[in-house]
Every structure is written in C-alpha cells, then in structure tokens.
Amino acid sequence: MISKFLDWLSNFLAHRKGLLPLTGISMVILNYLLQWLIYPHWLAASNLFLHLGIVVAIFGLMLAWAL
User: Fold this and answer.
1) What pLDDT shows up at residue 7?
2) Interacting residues of 3 by C-beta distance below 8 A, sequence separation 6+
3) What's the total number of domains in the chain?
4) What pTM does this model have?
C-alpha cells in the first residue's frame, strides 16, 4: 500500500518539479500576510507557515534535483 503510494507520488512529482518549491514559497508569503492580518493569534505568532514553507521548499528543490 505504501510502496504503491510512493510510486504514484514520485511519478506525479517527476512531471511537476516546481510544485513543492512554489508551495513552500506560497506558504512563506501566507505567513507574511498572517503577520499583518491576525498577529495576536498563535498561528501568526509562532511563524508556523514560515517554517513549514522553508522546509517544503528545500525538500522540493532536493527532490526535483533527484528526479
């Protein structure tokens, strides 16, 4: 089950190499917008989307290089 999912995911991402970096960049931009819109909220104060976006973008760049 997991190996079939990983095969499907690698085939999906092989044709869309820029999807994960663009997703990561959009998460960083979303975090920036949340800082202005809902700052006292814990979601904006913790910079959750900033950290996740950076990890997703770096992982996407490494995965695109490998595929």
Assistant:
1) 85
2) none
3) 1
4) 0.78
How many Cα atoms are found within 13 Å in the side-chain-facing hemisphere of 56? 17
- Tokens representing 39 are 């700052």
The two tokens of residue 18 are: 């820029």
DSSP output for 1-64? -HHHHHHHHHHHHHS-TTHHHHHHHHHHHHHHHHHHHSTTSHHHHTTHHHHHHHHHHHHHHHHH
pLDDT mean values, one per 10 residues, the chain (67 residues)? 85 84 94 87 87 93 80
Distance CA 28, CA 53 (A): 5
Instruction: Provide the domain limits for residue 38.
Output: 2-66
The dihedral sign for the CA sequence 65, 12, 26, 18: positive
